[in-house]
Write a structure and sequence with these properties.
The complex is a heterodimer of chains A (544) and B (396).
Chain A (H helix, E strand, L loop, with lengths): L3 E2 L5 E2 L38 H4 L4 H10 L1 H17 L15 H18 L9 H31 L6 H5 L3 E5 L6 H10 L3 E5 L2 E6 L6 H18 L6 E9 L3 E3 L7 E12 L11 H7 L4 E13 L11 E10 L4 E3 L2 E22 L9 E5 L6 E3 L5 E8 L2 E4 L2 E4 L8 E7 L7 E6 L2 E4 L6 E21 L2 H19 L4 E8 L2 E8 L3 H12 L8 E2 L6
Antiparallel strand pairs in A: 1-2, 3-23, 3-24, 4-5, 5-22, 6-21, 7-8, 8-9, 9-10, 11-12, 12-13, 12-21, 14-15, 15-18, 16-17, 18-19, 19-20, 22-23
Helix pairs in contact in A: 2-5, 3-5, 5-8, 8-10
Chain B lengths: L1 H27 L11 H28 L7 H23 L2 H18 L16 H31 L7 H28 L4 E7 L2 E7 L5 E2 L4 E2 L9 E2 L9 H26 L3 H10 L4 H35 L7 H23 L3 H26 L7
Parallel strand pairs in B: 3-5
Antiparallel strand pairs in B: 1-2, 1-4
Helix pairs in contact in B: 1-2, 1-4, 2-3, 3-4, 3-5, 4-5, 5-8, 5-9, 5-11, 6-7, 9-10, 9-11, 10-11
Classes of the chains: A alpha+beta (544), B mainly alpha (396).
Chain lengths: 544, 396
């Protein structure tokens, strides 16, 4: 280390631009802050010795200097900003319908542009490696730039002395000379105290300083950001984060995924309410409801019971369940138990539960050769009726659609069930085949004697709940809180210093602030009022 | 209930006219030859502004009582509230720096925003389940306050640019400034067109296929751009000149495009006529009026101070509170939804602004341009993300 001893006697670390104690510009180092031939001193970080400005030899130095640069930091922010904007031009993959092929979806919906968008990976932009890399680089930049600046600045502000070098005074942006012997220093100090300045004196030199802590705001908020980013990273650790989903039909009890078989949920009832313009309490929305044209949902709610399994978990064994709580999940009001939360996320209305059919003569609906009931969550292959008739299910389409003249099922949920039945009359090996769905009853051969008709059905609702366990939330919340504190600390207070130097015939006065110079000058005017100190001038020259 | 919402509507009208009157008083401060000494006009201006603000708070409260929820739940309510927050932020900064000119520009911007808001459906609308939360008003009001304060930064930046840009010859700065002025003219055009044709009860109806279904599409303005493959239903209506491109999806895409293009063209007429009358660039016409009154360093500081105050408020409201609510409502605090992403973009933009200013000494002109850009992003998030980005797809 090549330490630098200033003429005031203070020993400064290598790379110092302005002496930590007296502020004298240190010869040979002025290029660092670009002070040569300038009327004013660049006061950034008080001319302290920053690693990034001092060493540039090894690869470590070079990496350090790259990330500690604000210019690089701003570029990273701008690149992330542009990338994010691009990511909103078309919907991200998570917002397109779940059962379509993304490659063809983007092409079909948005044409050529969509295809390019998809092929460049912009449909998954926010989880792409390069977006992550940009965020990571911002994170690294925040850490290095903060370390590079905070420690030197902290030391310098701690070691500063009220007695400043003349050059330092003259080259401050706000500077003034008063030549008179009538200066009322007591009043000056009184005024400063009234405005909550801290006063330091040394041989008649007065340093008034306030709100130094505002200088730490940026570093505090950067710590908050880092904690936030670390919290987000922890989501990739399974122990910290579970994100699962469960469909539960009304009346059913299911194991909650992600809980390792420990918890079960029973869906007692799913409730969907819509606004009703005839209802007295909703009457105020009449106009909006009429304009909407369709129903506007008011409540999604699952009345549920949460059970805890009390016996040892052995696969295949019927669990013993103890009721934990009888509760509801609503939008904005998840069910919480243990470390888990269940969110009302989705629903299916009127899914078919059971369908009851009867066999009758083709030409006469009043005949009845027996009935059978199909449980749609567990349809059997074969139903044998008491009357001796036998029905085989050849094909089952839970949600059928006709595509190119043939029935296909578009999902496994019984929302629009259809069957291909083979009916065997008693003592016959000849089957009559028919296709049966809602609003469709097709005789395959056209020569059937019997017909199967739907006599009854039961529907029920299904609720979709997200299962979440998230131990990263406290950390993320902490990061957010620290960030906010830091931003407020840095933005809502200004670090201000006013130096007063006694001269044979009067005083010199100089002022510095990290921001809001106009307000600083207003404040100086207030503290010098009545003291005969003359208003200092703003020596800053506009470059534009 | 009906009475209360009528009172609420009238209070909003009253606030609008008070802001308008206040603008004239702030305008009168330009006439004061002696810089700063005579404060009468400014004092009257700010008093009327405060009165207008209180009146608008009255609108807000009565509407809240009438609808049983904070009136920040649709585009009309939110944008109106945003205008109110802009006025509030102006009042706060006025009392810190006492710049009369700020009122002359902040109030017209607020007036435009409120007028723009009332072009959208104004009836009281019910809350869907995800909006039924206290976070609706905690999040939305804070975010809007943040945006309001940040908008004052734009207002001050605009004053800086108009008064400081070198108007002796045409250059990059003058061109961009004219563009900003033209944009404002286009907003005025939109408001004039919408209110005129809605007063005339204009309707042009088309039948057009939307996602394979024949749908009725209603234009509230003359349809220069018809829906793709649309068939005119209204008799005696003008045939559209062109059809909207087929890739524009969504029921209202063609209607919005038509409105947008008409507003741009009418804006061009307004701007062009003004320029003809002024016989020079609008910026050059305005400059002499401001030049003497403006202390550039002070206006620059107001612009910066607004960002310094507004940035933390915006972050708290538009990101942190938003995340808390999203966590409760949708089980994830962040979902990369366009609105969220644009809030993040706003955050990034002002973060860059602060870094450039604090560490790289970007002041004055550059700072002022950044303030204009920031306001552009805020407006984009308010208007384009709601009307265009989500309008192109099914989710909204």
């Amino acid at each position: 280390m090549n330490e630098i001893t200033c003429e005031c006697g203070h020993v400064n670390p290598e790379g110092t631009v302005l002496c930590e104690a007296c502020g004298k510009p240190i010869e040979g180092n002025q290029h660092i802050n670009g002070n040569e031939d300038k009327k004013l001193l660049n006061m950034r970080y008080d001319g302290s010795a920053r690693r990034s400005q001092t060493y540039n030899r090894t690869i470590v130095d070079k990496i350090w200097n790259f990330f500690s640069s604000v210019k690089v930091g701003v570029w990273l922010i701008v690149l992330t900003l542009i990338a994010s904007a691009v990511g909103t031009i078309l919907p991200q993959e998570m917002y397109i319908p779940p059962n379509v092929d993304p490659a063809s979806h983007y092409r079909d919906q948005y044409g050529m542009f969509g295809q390019i968008y998809y092929q460049l990976g912009f449909h998954n932009l926010f989880s792409s490696w390069w977006y992550m890399l940009l965020i990571a680089m911002i994170g690294i930049s925040i850490v290095i730039a903060s370390i590079d600046r905070f420690f030197p600045l902290y030391k310098t502000l701690k070691r500063q002395k009220p007695k400043r070098h003349e050059l330092f005074m003259k080259k401050q942006r706000v500077f003034g000379v008063t030549e008179t012997e009538q200066i009322d220093l007591e009043l000056y100090k009184k005024n400063l105290k009234k405005r909550r300045f801290k006063i330091y004196e040394q041989d008649g030199h007065i340093l008034a300083e306030k709100n130094r802590f505002a200088r730490w705001g940026p570093y505090v908020n950067h710590i908050g950001l880092i904690i936030f980013l670390v919290g987000s990273l922890l989501r990739f650790v399974p122990a910290f984060y579970i994100d699962d989903f469960i469909w539960v039909r009304e009346g059913e009890t299911s194991m909650i995924p992600g809980t390792e078989g420990k918890y079960y949920i029973k869906n007692k009832d799913f409730i969907l309410e819509t606004y009703n313009e005839d209802d007295e309490t909703d009457a105020r929305f009449k106009e909006a409801i009429q304009k909407q044209g369709g129903p506007i949902p008011k409540t999604f709610q699952t009345n549920a019971v949460i059970y805890e399994r009390t016996d040892d978990i052995i696969p295949g064994k019927e669990p013993e369940l103890a009721e934990l709580k009888d509760t509801q999940a609503k939008m904005n009001h998840p069910i919480k138990f243990d470390d888990f939360a269940l969110y009302q996320a989705s629903y299916q209305l009127n899914e078919f539960k059971e369908m009851t059919f009867k066999i009758h003569d083709k030409g006469n609906e009043d005949t009845n050769y027996g009935e059978f009931t199909v449980d749609l969550s567990d349809p059997k292959n074969e139903y044998t009726l008491d009357s001796g008739y036998r029905v085989e299910i050849n094909n089952y389409f839970p949600e059928y659609e006709m595509q190119e003249g043939a029935p296909v099922s578009v999902s496994k949920y019984p929302k629009n069930p259809a069957f291909v039945f083979s009916l065997y009359p008693p003592d016959s090996e000849e089957a009559e085949t028919s296709f049966l769905g809602i609003g469709a009853n097709v005789d395959a051969s056209g020569e059937n004697d019997y017909k199967i008709g739907l006599v009854n059905f039961d529907v029920r609702d299904v609720t979709g709940l997200t299962v979440k366990k998230d131990h990263t939330l406290p950390l993320i919340a902490l990061g957010g809180a620290i960030f906010m504190l830091g931003v407020i600390q840095g933005m809502y207070w200004n670090h201000r210093r006013i130096w007063l130097q006694p001269k044979e015939n009067g005083v010199w006065i100089a002022g510095h602030t990290n921001k809001n110079w106009y307000a600083l000058r207003q404040e100086i005017n207030k503290v010098i009022s009545g003291t005969h100190i003359q208003e200092p001038r703003d020596q800053y020259e506009k470059k534009e | 209930m009906g009475d209360l919402s009528a009172i609420s509507g009238n209070l909003l009208y009253a606030a609008f006219f008070l802001y308008l009157i206040a603008t004239f008083f702030f305008g009168a401060t330009i006439r004061d030859k002696k810089r700063a000494k005579n404060r009468t006009a400014g004092n009257i201006g700010i008093s009327i502004t405060i009165l207008g603000f209180i009146t608008q708070v009255g609108y807000f409260i009565t509407r809240w009582i009438a609808s049983h929820h904070a009136p920040v739940s649709n585009l009309f309510e939110y944008t109106t509230f945003f205008g109110m927050m802009l006025v509030f932020a102006f009042i706060v900064l006025y009392f810190i720096y006492r710049v009369d000119l700020l009122g002359l520009f902040a109030l017209p911007i607020a007036l435009l925003i409120i007028a723009f808001a009332s072009m959208f459906p104004t009836e009281i609308s019910p809350l869907v389940p995800s909006l039924q939360s206290h976070w609706l008003y905690i999040h939305v009001t804070t975010a809007s306050l943040g945006q309001g304060i940040l908008s004052v930064s734009f207002v001050a930046g605009l004053i800086y640019l108009i008064s400081q840009i070198d108007q002796s010859k045409s250059n990059k700065h003058t061109s961009w400034l004219e563009f900003v002025i033209y944009t404002i003219a286009a907003v005025v055009a939109f408001i004039v067109l919408s209110s005129t044709f809605s007063a005339l009860n204009h309707q042009t109806v088309f039948q057009a296929p939307i996602e394979g279904q024949q749908t009725e599409i209603t234009y509230q303005m003359p349809a220069f751009i018809g829906p793709a493959d649309g068939e005119l239903v209204t008799e005696e209506a003008m045939q559209p000149l062109v059809e909207a491109p087929g890739w524009m999806r969504g029921e209202d895409a063609a209607v919005k495009l038509n409105t947008f293009i008409l507003s741009l063209l009418t804006g061009l007429i307004i701007y062009g006529v003004s320029r003809l009358l002024m016989r020079k660039r609008v910026g050059a016409f305005l400059q002499p009026m401001l030049r003497k009154k403006v202390n550039p360093e002070l206006v620059d500081e107001v612009s910066y101070r607004a960002v310094a105050i507004g940035f933390p408020v915006f972050t708290l409201g538009a990101l942190i509170f938003a995340m808390i609510w999203a966590q409760q409502a949708w089980d994830r605090f962040w979902g990369w939804d366009p609105k969220e992403v644009w809030a993040l973009i706003t955050f990034f933009f002002y973060a860059a602004y602060l870094h450039l200013r604090l560490s790289r000494g970007w002041q004055g002109m550059r700072s002022a341009w950044l303030a204009v850009g920031g306001f552009g992003i805020i407006m984009f998030n308010l208007i384009a993300v709601n009307l265009v980005i989500s309008g192109l797809h099914s989710y909204a």
